[in-house]
Design goal:
alpha/beta, 28 helices, globular, binds adenosine-5'-diphosphate, hydrolase, hydrolase activity, RNA binding
Amino acid sequence: NIQRPDSVVETRFDLPVTAMEFEIVDTIRNNDITIVCGETGSGKSTQVPAFLYEAGMSLSPDDPQSKFLIGITQPRRVAAVSTAKRVCYEMGQGDGQSIRGSFGKGNIVGYQTRYETAGLGDNTHIKFMTDGILLNEIQGDLLLRRYSVIVLDESHERNLNTDVLIGLLSVTVPLRKKAASENPSIVPLKLVLMSATLRVEDFTKNEKLFSSCPPAVVTVPGRTHPVTIHHSKVTELDDYETAAFKKVCKIHRKLPRGGILVFLTGKSEIVRMIKRLKHAFKIEGSARQVSCDVGEQHIDPATGSFPREVDDDEYDGDDLSTDDVDSLKSSLEDPTIPPSSDNDNIPLYACILPLYSLLSSEEQSKVFAPVPENHRLIVVATNIAETSITIPGISYVVDTGRQKCRNYNSGTGVASYDIMWISKAAADQRSGRAGRTGPGHCYRLYSSSLYSRHMDSFALPEVLTRPLEDVALSMKAMKISNISSFPFPTPPDRSQIDSAVKLLADIGCLDLSNVERDGGDGTITKLGLAVSELPLGVRYAKMLLVAAHSGVLDYAIVAVAALSESSPFSSHPSLESSEEKERLPNDEAEMDNVDSNLIKEREKLMKKKRKWFHSSGDLFAAISAIGAFTYAGRGAGGASEEHAARKFCEENGLNYTIMARIQKMRTHLAVLAKRRLGTAKGIAASSGCFSPKMSPPNKLQELLLIQSIASGLLDHIAVLAPPGSITGEHPADIRSAYIGCRSPADKPLFLDQGSSLFNRDYRQLPRWICYESVIRKMTKDGSYITVMKNI
Ligand code: ADP
């Protein structure tokens, strides 16, 4: 007996899922696992939970007194909260902004995220939550006894949490079925995966995953209209923001009514764009209007196309100059085609709204509100508008083709956000947003050849992009006992899982002592748990934890920052190709090819470079250099600070670009230290910044720092080969040969020519060293040796 508000009754009627209610409920009732896939905006997120509730699926069929939860997970916090509020409102229980009913008594609908809980109580039947919350619950109770249905929304996004949940639930479902057959008070658990129409085969064709209960699939037919796609002739590589800005202005000024949706990559771009648009449309303060004439062109009511775009191969959507429009207009004007609507000559105002995930849900929900008469909605959004949020009334999409992606630095495993091309699937999703209410147009600000040649078909699942030791440790922190046999929807390579587990054990994050007895691949240690909480590669997280413990965190931060970049001790710019960077001038073969001036330049540079050499190795050299670099640029501020720092690099044989990147990473790590290691000694942990005057470490600090660094590289330790112990032909200087603790004695490791320790007398070389990585290098005679980097 749900009392839906009148407006909801109407809009619900138009959603494609509504017509499928019976089929969806019936399939879920009769199958353990169901995949509901349908176009974004077809109504899956808002309607399926209500269908299940109304079908009584939160109640036990035998005992109406016992009640279960219908649990719905969302990958994003904002989606969990806003969908909960919307569903609550649609069920006649809330105002769409809040969840009415005080916590404790409870509503039909409630939600829980890491930071917020609302509406949950004895009466709750539908619980929205983030996937992290459900992961926590399933660790406490693998059978998830409180739930009768679990719906994983946006499962096509394939983030690690969702993938792990799918794997775990593929075990829970048969276990619950068995439990239900033995105990009448338990009901079987129904699992529903909801997905936009992307890559459903990853789930359906995965025999290992759902071997005992293959999923049933319900496809909700899309009700989308044709969208004409216009690629730019050339891709705007640099200033895509301006390209998008111009395009929006042109559409608003020249094209018939219909909302515009612009895809940018993040909040700052969105804020900038809105400012520019408001300025261009002379919208001041809160007045959000601008007058523009529409009706310059006739629209074809049958196709919704306007003349400029009628299958015009020549035209790539890039410039809608008035001349072009006029000439085309006159050539295509057909007195038999009436203007699209009587309103087309009335000035159209702009109503411009932002949409990104950090925006409050109140602000976000403004995009759903009807726009005032004679207004055109312009929404400037991130890829959140690609599948998670559907904006009504969009006819034009402006797609920059970019998004912010999380990338992992191969050195430190630090995640950074970079702007990258979206996948073809994402581009298609974006263009689809223009065809929800009627025929639409999508302007891609990149060429069709970029689309076909450079965009991947699909984004890779997170499990394949994150470093595997990270994935393995996170899963161990989720108390998963056996990662190698875990039913991943897309399993990583088995041998890579084994090496990840081995690395974790080597550095003390996993305890393998009971593996023989209990099976599995180890249990997480206390240290492992602490490491798993730092968003860094496991080796580097451990270095920082140990350093924080020893009071040398500020130095360790510089060492880890230096490890994340290539060497800053630059060579001559004319010789600076990436691989050549650290070659020194005593390489004869190369010397033949360079003129004597260049040789002199290089010798000068070598001198400068040598001054940074440090007897404790390359990371200590980097620490001195960064300390001096910071000091040189200190306090000058802005451009003059950069100038001073550049000059310093030039005079001291350092590569400015790399130094600046190391500094940036240092800032990032200092902020992280304040947040996560706040009780440690030092400036970073207490204030989240670094000192402009860092004194060099004293002997004790140096020792403690060496210990911290080595603690993360315990499997990368080598011992100096005694004279005469290296037999056989070795092209490199055998004075610099080491034997790795893990590598065979006849495969020595050599010091890199760019290392602080290279060219030292044998007696001055440390007996034990640790190194960050090894690379294979070709020697003068064309054979390969293995050299150690970052010693
Ligand atoms: P799907 O999950 O299939 O992508 P949704 O259920 O999210 O679809 O959206 C269905 C419809 O409900 C869309 O037309 C969307 O505009 C509307 N809608 C979703 N959330 C809200 C909200 N918070 N306020 C108003 N309308 C909404």
